[in-house]
Amino acid sequence: MLGRFKRLWDAKPMKTHYDAVIIGGGLHGLATAYFLARNHGLTDVAVIEKRYIGFGAAGRNTAIVRANQRTQENLPLYKEALDLWPVLTRELDFNLMFYNCGNLNLAHSEAALKAMRLQVASAQFQGIDSRLLDAKECRELVPALDISDRPRYPIFGGMFHPPGGIVRHDAVVWGLARGAAKRGVHIHQGTSATGIGVEGGKAAWVDTDRGRIRTPRVLNAAGAYSAGLANRFLGQRLPISVLTIQAMVTQPLKPLLHHVVSSGAYHCYANQTLKGEIATGAHMDPWPNYTTQTTAHYIKHQAEAVTEFLPCLKGLKFMRTWGGLADMTPDMAPIMDGHSPAEGYYLDCGWGYFGFKSSTVTGKYMAQYMATGECPEILKPFALKRFEEHRLMGETAALVDYTANN
Ligand SMILES: Cc1cc2nc3c(=O)[nH]c(=O)nc-3n(C[C@H](O)[C@H](O)[C@H](O)COP(=O)(O)OP(=O)(O)OC[C@H]3O[C@@H](n4cnc5c(N)ncnc54)[C@H](O)[C@@H]3O)c2cc1C
Question: What average pLDDT does this structure show over 138-157?
Fold first, then answer.
């Protein structure tokens, strides 16, 4: 019977030289490896993963995808990312389970509605479907919503984004890994990067706990550990704090929630999975740490928050809770950079809440960057030097003010 289940890829012996080494077998590392091979014929690539692929936030996120970010630098990237899911499902021949259910962000004040109006206009300007709704229209979309004045923060309206939804995160990890390995990429699980070597100002090798690999190209895509590695290996200081995000699912129910619903005021989002569970999360512990533990305080907060605007969920049991690490920058936009402090050394990190929905398109452009050495236009605004030049992006406002929408 076992013979029926084909392995998605085979482990290969680790070589002492590769054309590119990617540190981190998460979404961004695997996507970059896949596109290096697919778009640039760079197949002599190793992905080094200290545990197993998807061990980091890749396997712990709540899988929400959308394109209605806030700033003109971010919107095109996320739009292309959203358009890529159906394309990749076909191309990888792997069901990524894109559930195009749409996202509804609730506004709980006139000020929040005003801010949403600006975000809707910014998205529409980039050709992204985003609409402002009043409270009644929100309830037509989600009949379970309480739009009375009973909740502590009554619902004033919302921002609806029909093309967003949910994609199965594990499937993305496995599909990309299989697609990359099929094209010759080596995936080395249980292999930790322990150092990066520089010779004559150029990236020259990656040390691992299984030996040294010589390579002219290194990508640091180690998620929550990327800043620590950059500092330890190269003395590079990144403006990243690592915080824990917690999430949970309830017992399964018959279908009642057909969209992702989120509320910044309650700092909470909820959607119903294809299995019927209500998946909910959003909270981020406000102090930096590297633990993936959940807390009783947060479980209580989440139960109280979600039942404020979806009171029919009262009395449900949470079946599972988990935590994952998020690498947060001060402006809630990522860092994608290259050739500093060494030529051939690249960075793709600082994704915080948003690194699932962006992963495939980022992989495409980081692969282009690594293959050609030239930074693609779309990635230029995300360079590390924006922090030195005090040119922070306005993505924080897209989240903190009112959206809490992963
Ligand atoms: C609870 C939660 C919910 C989230 N919800 C969403 C959401 O709905 N939508 C969304 O867009 N984003 C969401 N995110 C964010 C998203 O999951 C991350 O931004 C994304 O996974 C980052 O991808 P990554 O590849 O950069 O990092 P990761 O997926 O964390 O991968 C990094 C990998 O590097 C490996 N590594 C670390 N150090 C080393 C080393 N020394 N050597 C080798 N390997 C190493 C780690 O083991 C890990 O596997 C959520 C995150 C969490 C925690």
Answer: 97
Backbone angles phi, psi at 351, to 5 degrees: -85, -15
> Residue 190 sits in a domain of what CATH number?
3.50.50.60
CA 273 to ligand 1 center in whole angstroms: 21
Quote the pTM value: 0.96
Domains identified in the chain, total number: 2
Q: Residue 103: CB partners within 8 Å, gap ≥ 6?
A: 64, 66, 68, 160, 161, 164, 165, 259, 260, 261, 262, 405
Residue ranges making up the domain that contains 298: 99-165+241-329
From the CA of 48, give the closest atom in ligand 1: 43
Q: What is the CATH number of the domain that holds 319?
A: 3.30.9.10
Which residue of 14, 35, 101, 225 sits with most ligand 1 atoms within 8 Å of its CB, as the best mutation to test the pocket? 225
- Residue 401: its pLDDT value, please? 44
pLDDT at position 54? 97
Mean pLDDT confidence for 326-342 = 96
Checking if the pLDDT of 403 tops 90, the result is no
